[in-house]
Structure formats: structure tokens, C-alpha cells
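Re: zinc ion structure - here you go.
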Amino acid sequence: MNDFIQSAEALQEELVTCRRHLHQAPEIGLELPNTTAFVIEKLKAYGYAPTRCGGGVVATCGKGVSGKTFMLRADMDALPIQEESGEPFSATNGNMHACGHDFHTTMLLGCAKLLKQNESAIEGTVKLMFQPGEEVALGAKTMIEAGVLKNPDVDAAMMIHVLTGAPGVANGDVVVMAEGAASSNTDAFRINVKGKGGHGATPHETVDPINVMAHVHTALQVINAREVNAAELFTMTIGEIRAGSANNVIPDTGYMRGTIRSFGKPTRAFVKERLAEISESVAKTFRAEAEVVYEFEVPSVINEGSVRRESLAAMQSLFGDTIKDASTYAGGMFARITGSEDFGYVSEEVPSLMVGLVTGIPADGHRYPMHHPKATFDERVLWKGAAVYAHTAMTWLKNNQ
Ligand SMILES: [Zn+2]
Ligand SMILES: [Zn+2]
């Protein structure tokens, strides 16, 4: 297997060039014309016949139609952030690969090349899923609706997310998140409040939505403070409140936007029920109306037991003790993440696995977390990500013929 590591390491220079190209030209959302064109061009050069699917790109590799199919996923989209990383290859178009999806795309391209070099040893099919729109929580869903899990049908799937800026970890470590819910259910909501506007001098003739929202905001805190068991991982954030545009006018309406992050279906359902009850009844108390609508509802990534166990063993056979079980690694910091990951939609359909790859630590100057305009990532582990992807897929297929 050392040959496998050697051929992955041999890709490093090409992967750095590829990553910097993507990093300098970040695109956001569901349509990534330049990024997808680049991925298609690379895959074709490696001998693939890629197809477009739901805004993303799909390609397969393997001996033939027999056997099972293991899918590897990379997301390709960036964030609408003005980059301040100071890197010589910084983006200047107002978007930034601050979540490391340029790494994911590059590592899966490297994996594609490795798989082609070893195609005769693939006992089944490896499907490569390059998806758009993870940051808007729609890309995976769109690709599933467009058939990414069909033809050939996917039997199991895996994704890697890079991790940077965290203290107490070692660069290049691979962190296999806990069995069960590995990321949170993330529900983004908006509470629309309807009052009755009027003159600031005659508030008795109005129903003030700003007053209502202040009370709703306070009342919602009780869900976390008194209603959900403290042992549950749960958090709710109101990140935006808007109403009015003058100091002497009471507006007709206002709205609040926020996110609920929860683990497990019962907590998720309970919180959503209470959010509606509290918002509507507090508004009613003040003679106003409130309505809760959801902007997106992303399910947890569920790490399935057997895929997780087998992949952990496969990765450890190649990379030894740099492969970490997240339940005990770094105080369990990465066992379950309260971030959202729309690969959750894939894990609802097929047995799945999410793992992290440490790509930058504070001791080496990578001090900022993902989504920060100053975030930087350590390119030295690009080849390792490619190798982990390819080796995990090939081993799973061999063990599950
Ligand atoms: Zn992100
Ligand atoms: Zn991300």
C-alpha cells in the first residue's frame, strides 16, 4: 500500500496548482459555471466521461457494471466574503473559499486521478459527486432530485470536510466523526410579525410590531433555558431583527430571522412546535399576528455504524494513528459539530460517513476558523485527502462485493 501513498504524494504539486486556481476564482450558490467547467476539463483529461447533474458534476470509475457503488462527495461553492487572508493567490471578486471547498474539489480531483491509475483494482463502481450550493443548503438536495444517487444506484457514501484554525490538534490528522448524528439539524426560520402602523405621537391607535418582537425574542429564550434538557446539544440564534425606518413612525410589520441547531428528531420537532406556539401567542397577547416560515431545513449528517467502522479501519490500515476517532480526539471537540452540512440529505438516503481533515493549526500560523475572511489552510495535506477518499472507497467496495 506504500505504492498508493507514493502515487498520492506524487500528485501534490499538481494539486496545489489546482487548489490555487480554484481559490482565485470562487463562485457562490447553485450555479458555478467556471468551477464546473474546470472540473469537467480536468476529469476528461484524466480519462473520465463526466456528466452535469443538478448544477454539479458526476463521474464514475471502476471495472464495469457489476458490484456495488460507493459515492465520494466534494462541494465546490464559496462564500460571499471579501478575502483578507493575505495569501498571494487571494480572491479579489468579493467571494472567498473561506470554508475550504476549493480543497474538497481539489482532493476529489486528485482522488479521480488515483482511481484511474488503479481502475482495474476497483471491485465495483466509485461515483464522484461534485456539488454546488452547500453554503446555501440546496446543492445536495438539487443533485439528489436530479438523480445523483441513481444509475448506478449508490450503496454508501462519504465526504471529507477540512478543519482549520482549531487548537489542540495536529495538522494532517483525519477525524472520523461520531456514529449517529455528526452534524446538527439546522432549521433557518423567519418570524413575520404583523401589527398596525401609525404616528409615534398616538401609539394607542397602533399595534407596535417592534414591541411584539422584543417580547417574542425574550420569550423564546425559555426554550433553551427551561424546556430542552441541558444534556441535549441544542442552540437557537436570532441573527436579524428588522422593522421601521423612522424615529416617529410605528411600522405595520417587522420580522426576525434565526437558526435552530439540534440533534435528534424529538428535540427538533419539539423546538419547532414551541417556536410557533410562543411566537403566535406572544403576538396575540399584544393584539398582533406572528407567522413562522422556514427558509431551509437541513437534516443532520448521520454517520452509519458499519460504513463508519469499516472506513475507520481502512483509513487506519493506510495512515496508522493519524486517523482519529472523534469521540476521544481533542476532548471530543469534533465528535458532533453544531454546524450544518447539506450532505445530511445524502445520509437520509444511503448509509453515509462524514470525516474531517485538519488543514491548518494555529502553531503554523493558521489562526482563523472557517468562514473568517482571514482564514488560511495548509496545502501540505492535499495529497492525503485525495488518498483517503480513494482508499476508503476502494476498500469498502472490496469488503462489500
Ligand atoms: Zn461553510
Ligand atoms: Zn463547508
